[in-house]
Amino acid sequence: MLLTISTSSTxxxxxxxxxxxxxxxxxxxxxxxxxxGQAHVFYPVLSDHxxxxxxxxxxxxxxxxxxKSRDQAFLLDHYVNDRPYVASSFxxxxxxxxxxSALAGRCLDRPELVxxxxxxxxxxxxxxxxxxxxxxxxxxxxxxxxxxxxxxPLDDRFPEWGRSSYYSVALAGTSTLSRLxxxxxxxxxxxxxxxxxxxxxxxxxxxxxxxxxxxxxxxxKDLITRRYLGNRVELFRTAWARLIDEEAGxxxxxxxxxxxxxxxxxxxxxxxxxxxxxxxxxRLRHEAVLAALRASGAxxxxxLGCGDGKLLPxxxxxxxxxxxxxxxxxxxxxxxxxxxxxxDDRSAHQADRLTLWHGSLMYRDSRLAGFDAAVLxxxxxxLDPPRLVALERVVFGYARPATVVVTTxxxxxxxxxxxLSAGEFRHGDHRFEWTRSExxxxxxxxxxxxxxxxxxxxxxxxxxxVGAPTQMCVFRRPVGEVFQP
Length: 485
Ligand code: SAH
Fold this sequence. Notes:
The protein has helices at residues 17-22, 70-73, 89-98, 100-104, 134-140, 177-192, 201-210, 221-228, 233-248, 254-258, 281-296, 312-317, 331-340, 348-353, 385-399, 436-450; strands spanning 2-8, 30-34, 37-46, 50-59, 118-128, 146-153, 163-175, 300-304, 323-328, 354-358, 373-377, 403-409, 453-459, 470-476. It has 485 residues and is of the alpha/beta class. Strands 2-3-4-1-5-7-6 form a seven-stranded antiparallel beta sheet, with helices on one face. Strands 10-9-8-11-12-14-13 form a seven-stranded mixed beta sheet, sandwiched between helices. Helix 6 (177-192) crosses helix 8 and helix 7 (201-210) runs parallel beside helix 9 (233-248). The protein is elongated and about 80 Å long. The relative contact order is 0.08. S-adenosyl-L-homocysteine binds at residues 253, 257, 260-261, 264, 305-307, 310, 328-330, 333, 360-362, 377-379, 382-383.
């Protein structure tokens, strides 16, 4: 297994600086013992113009299974496999151990070199790629590299057997050495989607540390994160939530949601009371939410994604609720809410009971802790699925009120609205609308992940075939629970 990294001199640096950056003496052939074999470092090319360093790995296929239980050792697979010959998670471990300082961006002798982008080329002689050779381009090109790959037939004597999954890869670009090494460290094991060790929570920390500054904005961060974490769903969800925090920064989502509130009820729009005396859907929704809150015994309530504050007057009207907060990411909506509630001319006591906060449900916010209940009325469908993961963590993981009430459209009911063509959502800003079974599956997953019981109810007129227009779930946290999300 061979990785080579080359550079050429520029007006700002000499090719020979590579040895300083790597903390590896240019005139020595050095070997390092690793748990699975040996790593050798040497410089095949070193001149005033060009320098190349080689990291050669000798993996001991027997050593990697020695000491393992008999159950594992019986696998002949351990002896007859491609690991000694290909770039895999073993190479990432070797990069971290042998080039650790360079990877971390430390250079005591020449610190000024660390942040200097230099022309670099990395060559991986044999990279196993699950999912086709184009994946190499898809993962490296967005990071600014010119990518060249050479594919190989499975056996050149039998072309009819087709192509193998092995590629020689060359990446060229201008980058700091530390950045290049962090790309290789994270992405090499992603290509063959296999790791030689158990993937636990510390791998998540490593991924986020090594991916800092580039993974959050990578167009393939979904695939990279999923594969890197060995397809472990719970780690993947946490990683996504944290990457989104990193990517969003500030109120990135405000403009996208500005228009959300006003047109929220577009196709649902009906007068307060329909001709048959039925309350309009948004009133029915509020009644259902209020009933759930009253039944919960909650005194303090968060209206998360309160929009222009339609629910807040009903909360204020009920003396059971002595602390009410409306929170939204959109300042404009909050201004509407302020006017609707005539907050500016309310008595001091009323003002004490109700506050409006500007904030985003993408971020952990210490103000949200300590409330008895939170409601999310027609909010979740405004978030892309990965952002929804961040919201779940904030609401159910950090704020953790005893009761959470969530309402969302039932997509099946859309056929009942003539204004909607097939497949269309009720609102242009909706990222999804769920069927009853999709909502039930989500609620069950959240309940399971965060330790809440769930109770789903239809809201609005019930149609035998497609159900009610709105679906609601009341999540309850068992009293006295000790739960570590
Ligand atoms: N609950 C209100 C408004 C629903 S519209 C009602 O029933 O009338 C959805 C609201 O969610 C919008 O006001 C939008 O600004 C808000 N929202 C969307 N993403 C948000 C986020 N990340 N943090 C806080 N609020 C958000």
